[in-house]
Amino acid sequence: GRRAVETLQAAGDSSCAAAALFNLGGLADARDQVRQALVLWRRARRMMNTDDGLRLGVIDGSLAGGLQALGRFREARELYLRAASQLQEAGARTDALQLRLGLAEVQALLGEIGQALTEIHSVETVAVELEDDNLLFEARGLVARLELDLGHLDRSARLAEETIPRCERAGRLDDAARLAAIRALAIVGGAEGDPDSALAAAEAALGAAGLAVAAAVLRVELTRSGRPFPTSRLRRDATLLDRSGLAIQADLARLALAEALFREGTTSAAAEACRQVLGRRHASVWPRLEAHRVLGEILADHEPEAAAHHLRWSVRLAESVRG
Question: Hey, how many other C-beta atoms are within 10 angstroms of the C-beta on 182?
């Protein structure tokens, strides 16, 4: 890897050296070493010919995704805009549209919901024209999620329900699972009468469809809204999500487990669940931020100095996200 880059640089082949650095960054990113990936991608960009809009767009798109994972949303927004424009000018229309969906995600995270929906609907329109199901399903999944966040539960559930069969027919089972989880959340959120019965029905529907991972994601989302679940269920969900490669969701399940254990008075096990999250090297700030906060609350009565340390870290990380 690195020796190949040095050899190519010594030979004066900066373009190939930049490509090698970019690939090394991709490997680092796949191992959740996003900060290292960003360093490599920035080096690759400095080496790249400034006239090569296609490669510059690809690198800038990767940088935008890395910054988004780190919670640096404003920087990511600017890079998504630049990268999408570069790829559009280079004729890579589908790749440019994909980056515009990334832009919409960041806009939503910054509270720019109207702009995000406008961006997504624009991509959706083009995806229909191009008959690009991959883009279409991703765009509709984002819309369904935003409608859910805005409290438009019926609209979110209806869009998810309409799109799930198309995803399944196209073999896009991951998209179908995400939409099924969104639909279940919308149904539970809007249910009249006994919400526990509605939740049980939603979980059963997901399980019957072979979407156990989506059911676990559903429970994690609901715990973040204050709904309790048995600690045994949360432990199983964390294990399942880890095995499915959803590390951040798995850690959010562990943090929900920590809070549940703390409420039960099992403080040592609760603290251990938080430390397990902090001991894992994730790119995203969210699990770390929450782990420091929860651990600070757990330790407040018995170890006030340690509690203050963790709460300070939680505040610092929250400030870094706000940018």
Answer: 27
DSSP class per residue in 3-35? HHHHHHHHTT-HHHHHHHHHHHHHHHHHTT-HH
Nearest to 285 by CA among 34, 18, 89, 16: 34
How far apart (Å, rounded) are the C-alpha atoms in residues 38 and 24? 10
> Which three-class secondary structure state does DSSP give residue 98?
helix
- 134-155 burial, b if ≥16 CB within 10 A, otherwise e? ebbbbbbbbbbbbbbeeebbee
Torsion of Cα atoms, 249 then 251 then 257 then 261, to 10°: -160
What confidence tens digit (pLDDT) does each residue in 289-306 have? 888 888 998 888 888 898
Residue carrying the six token digits 């960041």: 106
- Nearest-10 crossing angle of helices 73-89, 53-69: 160
How many CA atoms lie less than 13 Å away from 195 in the CB half-sphere?
9
Single-letter amino acid code for the residue at 179: L
- pTM, two decimal places: 0.61
pLDDT for 226 equals 67
User: Residue 246 is which amino acid?
Assistant: L
How far apart CA 195 and CA 207 sit, in angstroms, is 18
Q: Which helix (H) or strand (E) holds 111?
A: none
* pLDDT tens column, 186-200: 776 665 545 566 566
Residue 71 token pair: 């919670």
Cα Rg of the chain (Å, integer): 22
CA distance 10 to 13: 8
CA 185 to chain centre: 17
Nearest to 221 by CA among 148, 294, 274: 148
Q: Are the C-beta atoms of residues 179 and 144 closer than 8 Å to each other?
A: yes
Nearest to 224 by CA among 159, 290, 173: 290
- Nearest in space to 103 (alpha carbons), one of 128, 122, 130: 122
